[in-house]
Amino acid sequence: MTILFDDRSGYRVITLNRPERLNALTVGMADELMAALNAAEADKSCRAVMLTGAGRGFCAGQDLTAIVGASADEISDLLDHYNPLIRRLRALKLPVVCAVNGIAAGAGANLALACDIVLAANSASFIQAFARIGLIPDCAGTWFLPRLVGGARARALAMLADPLPAETAAEWGLIWQAVPDDRLMDEAHALAARLAGGPTAALALIKRALEESAGNDLDTQLDLERDLQAVAAATPDHAEGLRAFLEKRPPAFTGGRS
Ligand code: LHQ
């Protein structure tokens, strides 16, 4: 299996599992990952996802041995397997924590950036490795980078293809946090468990509002917030959140939808 699952209480851990190749991606692996994300969303007891890598790397991007001699058409066909993954992660109605346990290169870096909250081990680094092999950042690298770190840093990261250490990635806002290596998995599990106890429907609406903001002007976004707020306001978790506030106790969200 190139993808492993581990069901925890309220969330599912998905592990990229080709450690001898630093979890480099194949088409089969991308399709398995897609199936795992679909299964997580379909399982109503699953309220968050954690994505990580087996071994010393997170993901070294496309398996380069699989594209030696590939035609231009075959390369672009490959992206028809990877692009849906990026879209699925962004639209998944569950929060996704990424625990970047080691190097994240090429499509592997951008797979991590597609997740909602990215934690990385201090020893991990992010490489937009594409220019090293005469390619351009794909898997939404050219969309994420300027939005997360600004144009100047995006250009240098993409053109120089140098490793960006996790701590700098966090300072620049590329990821949420860099943590000591021996704390990474505990911190990521704690975050996933916390999100799994959250107001699942509202978290999905937050994802949607933030995602749509990228293409909206202020007026459109205000209208969208009003509409999505009406959906959130009709959920049992909103009622529970208000009750808990008035009763001065922590909320017991169920993740149910209206
Ligand atoms: C690998 C890989 C790898 C195969 C390490 N493939 N074996 C592009 C084209 C088309 C469509 C779809 O999308 C894309 C997007 C992309 O992702 S393009 C960018 C692809 N990735 C890269 O260019 C990164 C290639 N890897 C590296 O530069 C290095 O391996 C890094 C910097 C990631 C890690 O370096 P080290 O820590 O020194 O490890 P290593 O190089 O010794 O790798 C360990 C093993 O993993 C090694 O195999 P070996 O048999 O010698 O032990 C590598 O050959 C293998 N490996 N990445 N992408």
* Global outline: globular
- The radius of gyration is 19 Å
Low-confidence stretches: none
Strand content: 15-25%
Order of strands in the sheet with most strands: 1-2-3-5-7-10
Q: Strand count, sense and closure of the main sheet?
A: 6 strands, mixed
Based on helices, strands and strand pairing, what is the structural class? alpha/beta
Helical percentage? 40-55%
Total of helices: 10
**Gap from first CA to last CA:** 37 Å
Q: Which ligands are bound? A: ligand LHQ
The count of DSSP E runs of length 2 or more, i.e. the number of strands, is 10
- Helix-strand string: EEHEEHEEHEEHHEHEHHHH
Calculate the mean pLDDT score and round it: 97
What attributes characterize this protein structure?
258 residues, six-stranded mixed sheet, four-stranded mixed sheet, 10 helices, globular
Descriptive account of the structure:
- Helix 4 crosses helix 5 and helix 8 runs antiparallel to helix 9.
- The two termini are 37 Å apart.
- The mean pLDDT is 97.
- The protein is globular.
- The longest helix has 20 residues.
- The chain contains ten helices and ten strands.
- It is α/β, with parallel strands linked by helices and 258 residues long.
- The chain is 48% helix and 15% strand.
- Helix 1 links the parallel strand 2 and strand 3.
- Strands 1-2-3-5-7-10 form a six-stranded mixed sheet, sandwiched between helices. A four-stranded mixed sheet has the order 4-6-8-9.
- The chain binds ligand LHQ.
- The site of ligand LHQ has 25 residues, from helix 2 and strand 6.
